[in-house]
Every structure is written in structure tokens, then in C-alpha cells.
């Protein structure tokens, strides 16, 4: 699992694209090649306006539309309802993760930077080598993800300006106007202003999507490279009769374990939120791509299959990496048990190894871990997306779409 220079350049590209307007709690410093945390202060006022102002207002508008539909105040067409659900998933995703970064970002930044230092210590220059043998697909993929996500933000903004069906504020206005409500000029101006500034929450959503994809991928590759090097050098160090040498070798794994523990307050809830909302949005995008061709306007429809493919690609990249962390640790610990017989002080080394736990990514909330990312988790997660997509598709018949006034 070599971390190439092109992969590090993807973080530079991320900073150049997304950190040009205002400071964020967690940002990438191009000069020092580290994650930098900015605590809540005056420097973050533009960010707070963006997240807890524009993004929260957008979330409130979406929630108001869904409540109106739930209690019969509004009768939304199916297409509009699905689009509102897509917006809701993305906005909730951004709000939760931005809040997590604001309150636990100091641990996240410290853990990522410490992991980078540890990888340089254990692996030497391996983590910064140039990829010359073949195409660096990992680096190219990370850079393409950032380019695609940043361009998608502006494309989405343009579409929300062109089509009122894609703009939640326009739909909210239409719902109340259909009930005969009259709006004062100030309220109309506020709605027009919110519609015109949709670029701010859309841009913030794109940024958090990028950081949630790129930083965990880089962290996973760094950790896997450390585990691989520790496993390869195990025979030499574990066979030593000098406990000082053995302790120095095992200290690398203990450091890796400590780094993951430091960032656990962010990793566990973010893993749960990301996997749940990704499943939610993937099912919606798949359902629209399969069943609503010809019903959704052709100018808007390509967005949904592209988003479905993008979600599937990110799942294919990230989930196996998270699973490999736990599986690689199990292989490493099994190898240590095999090498235990050649140790000069078996009792001491056995107690030492017994104190270690497998490095793994957990999904949880409020301090409670609900599941561990292992091989069965990957199968269950992908299987759930496929199962819900099939169930939703079987319950929909496009031939009778005109009866339900869907378009």
C-alpha cells in the first residue's frame, strides 16, 4: 500500500479549490503538509455563517417541506419528493460532519499528522516515493474526485437557478402560495436572496464530501503501509533475545493503536453517519437512474446516474480500506503468535502481545460502538444497498406514472 506523491498532491489541490474563500475548522496546509485545526473564534465567523446560517436554513426549509407532505398540508409530486429527500441527505451529511470536525477537529488533525510522522519513521521514504512503474491509479482517482466534486458544486448551483423544481426555496414558496398565503415584499426578497446564495451551502457540502473521502483514504493507506512494514520486519525483531529491541519494535504498533484511539471521538460517529447517509443517497440515486428515465427532464436526469456511479465508486474505494485495517491486524497478530515460540522470554512477550488490540474502525454514536468494519460489514453494507434498490424498483411501475401526476 504505497502512498505516492500524487496522492499527497490531491490534498494540495483540495486546499487550493476549497480553502480560498474562508477559514474552516480543519484545513490542509500546503507548506507544512499537515492538517491544521482552527478553534472557534473570530476567524471562523464566515464558516459559522455558512454552516449554521445558510446550511441550517436550507435544512429547516427541507424539513418544513417534508413535514408539510407528511401531515397533508402539501401534495408533492413523487419526483419533487425524491429530489427533496436527496437534498435532505446531503444537507444532514454536511451539517453533522462539519459539527463533528468543529468539536473534535483538534484530535483529528493531531492524529492524522502523527500518523504521517509515524509512517515516515516506520516506512522511511516509501510513503513519499514517485510512482514510476505504471499509472498511479490511486493518486489519479483522488485528484479526479476533488476535480469532479468541485465542478459538481457549480453545476448543481446553475441547475437550481435554471429549474425551480430543483430549488427547495422555490418549492417551499410554491407550497404556501398554493394555499393562498400572501408574502410581503421582504419575505419575497429573503427567499430570492436565499435562492441566489445557494452556492454557499452547495459549496460547503462539496467541501465536506471531499475531506471525508480524501483524508480517510490517505489515513488508511498510511496505516496499512505501517502494518505491512511491521509485519515484514517481525521475524527479525521478534526473534531477538533483547527485550529492549522487542519493545522498540512493538512500540510502533502501540503508537498506531494510540493514534486511532485519539481520533475515536470523530471516527466512530462519522463512520456511522457516512455509511447510513451514503446508503440512503445511493438507493435514491439508483432508484431514479433505473426507473425515472423519461419522467425527469432530460436536462436534469444525467445528474442522478453520475451521482449513483460516484457513490458506488467511493464505496468501492473506502469500505475495503476500512475493512483491510482490521483484517491486516488479525494477520499481523496471528504471525506474532507463530513467532512467539522463538522468543527468549515467552512469558514477557505473551503478556505484551495480550495487551494489544486490533486496530479497527468502529461505527457508533454517543460513545457506544454499534459495529466494527470487518469483512462481513462490507458484504452487509453493499447487500443492503442492492436489496433496498431492488425493493424500491419493484414497488414502482413507470407505465402508470401519468396516473399519479409524477411529471
From TrEMBL:
Bilayer-crossing regions: 44-66, 78-96, 102-119, 140-160, 172-193, 205-224, 266-288, 300-323, 354-371
Domain of life the protein comes from: Eukaryota
Keyword flag Transmembrane helix: yes
Keyword annotations from UniProtKB, A to Z: Membrane, Transmembrane, Transmembrane helix
Name of the protein this chain belongs to: Uncharacterized protein
Species: Folsomia candida
Amino acid at each position: 500500500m504505497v502512498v505516492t506523491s500524487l496522492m499527497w498532491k490531491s490534498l494540495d489541490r483540495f486546499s487550493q479549490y476549497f480553502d480560498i474563500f474562508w477559514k474552516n475548522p480543519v484545513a490542509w496546509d500546503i507548506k507544512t503538509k499537515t492538517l491544521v485545526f482552527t478553534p472557534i473564534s473570530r476567524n471562523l465567523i464566515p464558516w459559522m455563517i455558512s454552516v449554521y446560517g445558510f446550511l441550517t436554513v436550507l435544512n429547516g426549509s427541507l424539513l418544513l417541506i417534508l413535514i408539510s407532505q407528511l401531515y397533508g398540508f402539501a401534495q408533492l409530486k413523487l419526483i419533487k419528493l425524491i429530489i427533496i429527500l436527496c437534498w435532505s441527505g446531503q444537507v444532514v451529511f454536511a451539517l453533522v460532519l462539519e459539527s463533528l470536525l468543529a468539536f473534535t477537529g483538534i484530535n483529528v488533525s493531531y492524529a492524522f499528522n502523527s500518523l504521517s510522522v509515524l509512517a515516515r519513521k516506520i516506512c522511511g521514504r516509501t510513503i513519499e516515493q514517485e510512482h514510476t512503474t505504471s499509472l498511479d491509479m490511486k493518486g489519479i482517482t483522488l485528484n479526479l474526485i476533488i476535480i469532479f466534486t468541485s465542478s459538481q458544486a457549480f453545476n448543481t448551483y446553475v441547475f437550481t437557478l435554471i429549474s425551480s423544481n430543483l430549488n427547495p426555496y422555490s418549492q417551499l414558496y410554491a407550497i404556501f402560495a398554493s394555499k393562498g398565503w400572501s408574502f410581503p415584499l421582504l419575505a419575497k426578497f429573503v427567499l430570492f436572496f436565499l435562492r441566489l446564495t445557494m452556492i454557499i451551502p452547495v459549496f460547503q457540502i462539496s467541501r465536506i464530501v471531499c475531506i471525508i473521502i480524501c483524508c480517510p483514504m490517505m489515513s488508511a493507506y498510511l496505516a496499512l503501509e505501517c502494518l505491512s512494514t511491521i509485519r515484514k520486519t517481525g521475524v527479525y525483531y521478534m526473534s531477538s533475545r533483547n527485550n529492549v529491541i522487542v519493545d522498540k519494535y512493538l512500540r510502533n504498533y502501540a503508537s498506531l493503536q494510540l493514534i486511532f484511539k485519539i481520533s475515536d471521538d470523530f471516527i466512530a460517529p462519522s463512520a456511522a453517519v457516512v455509511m447510513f447517509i451514503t446508503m440512503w443517497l445511493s438507493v435514491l440515486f439508483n432508484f431514479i437512474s433505473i426507473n425515472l428515465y423519461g419522467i425527469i427532464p432530460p436536462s436534469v436526469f444525467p445528474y442522478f446516474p453520475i451521482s449513483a456511479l460516484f457513490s458506488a465508486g467511493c464505496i468501492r474505494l473506502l469500505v475495503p480500506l476500512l475493512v483491510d485495517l482490521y483484517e491486516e491486524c488479525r494477520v499481523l497478530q496471528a504471525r506474532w503468535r507463530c513467532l512467539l515460540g522463538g522468543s527468549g522470554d515467552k512469558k514477557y512477550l505473551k503478556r505484551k502481545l495480550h495487551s494489544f488490540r486490533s486496530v479497527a474502525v468502529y461505527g457508533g454514536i454517543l460513545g457506544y460502538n454499534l459495529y466494527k468494519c470487518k469483512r462481513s460489514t462490507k458484504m452487509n453494507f453493499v447487500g443492503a444497498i442492492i436489496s433496498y434498490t431492488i425493493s424500491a424498483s419493484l414497488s414502482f411501475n413507470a407505465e402508470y406514472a401519468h396516473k399519479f401526476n409524477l411529471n
